[in-house]
Amino acid sequence: MKTFAKSFLGAATGTMIIIASFALYFHAYEQQTSSKTTHQTTTENSFSQLPVHQASYVVPQQTDFTQAAEKSINAVVHIKTEVSAKTGSYESFFGPFQDYFGNPYRNDTYIAFGSGVIISSDGYIVTNNHVVEGAERITVTFNNKKELEARIVGTDPTTDLALIKVDADELVFLTYGNSDKVKVGEWVLAVGNPFNLTSTVTAGIVSAKARYMGILGAQSSIESFIQTDAVVNRGNSGGALVNTHGDLIGINAAIASHTGLYEGYSFAIPVNLVKKVINDLMEFGELQRAYIGVQIRDIDAEFATELGLSEIEGVYIAGIVPDGGADIAGLREGDVILSIDNNRIHSLSELMGNIGQHSPGEVVSIDANRDNELQTFYVTLKNENGTTAIIKSGNTFNNNLLGASLQQLSSDELRGLKISNGLKITEVNEGILRRGGITPGFIITEINGVKVNSSSSLNEALQRTKRNIIQLKGMYPNGVRISYEFML
Asked: Is the pTM of this model over 0.90?
């Protein structure tokens, strides 16, 4: 009995010790857990007190591009051009005896591709100047694969725009939108014909406006591009940039690329400028370019400090053209142009894009900062000759000796080609030019050492022919320069 009692008490005591140990363990565990929970709650509370920045816009996931795409694809065409460049590798060898050997020159025909936008039901098509420049043959392929020959109505190198025409009726065409109302961040579609495919549609947003790229060369060129991130590749040049309603807001012209393929940005000519240029080409044969009559420079932070300006805005007038529109209106050197017709101006490209939509003779209101005071001036715009008269492209005339029809180049064409004079061949008939293989589009700059720029200067130059040999120099619009010698 004593042994049993001792065993029972020992077992009970052991059990109590084990229970107590478990109790102490669970108590310590609860405190540790409570501490961890408290620490976690404190951490979560501290994170919840951090500032949270939420986007102020919602990406339009349900934006419907189908209507705009359906409206556009049949109004965008594929353009194929053929350009012949005559090599002069045999010229120096045969010299004046070349005609006795037939035609010792070799014709190389180059094929180029681009896109165009139908703007009227009767076949007027807008494209880039660089797509059709120097073309001897233009073939337009519609989205239904029908092909038609096209002719050039007019070109303007300073804006890189051209107008061509096909003989057709009841064509699907795009209507003009308003590029001034286009906003950065707005959805747009680029419609073109890259890689010789049928009409292709890509989407993106407007990344920036009034972009200057310096790609057109001449100082008088108007560059105020709409920048987008819609995919544009080779063959898209001359295609359409449309909004989600399918309205034309730009003509695709260039891409920013190191490889020749799309790398992220593309650029389009604003449709308000396109509309102005195309209307001029239809009515007058060339662009009626308007000028304020000032020399301008952009304003940066350093220059604003130098001028004592409180804000970095506007463009600075660095010079005034005597008797120009600005001079007569009272603007002067040192003024800062802030707006034109209540449209804010922040850069030279914005100013040129705005004025490029106007014609000589129109009046614009200019708000300018003069000595930190806002003043308004009303400027009558003038043409490059300092008048408000309409400038029409030269009339075509014939020369029987050459066997060709020729036309005086416009001032914009001369600037675009970086030459001071020239006569463009519009038609070649029987005569020495045809025997030499010269084709329409060739520009004669000099004959017998005399620069030619008109019918009278051409006749004067031909009268200086000696030993029945005519020496002729000129170029094709693609920049290929050639000299010839013809025996009468």
From this structure: no
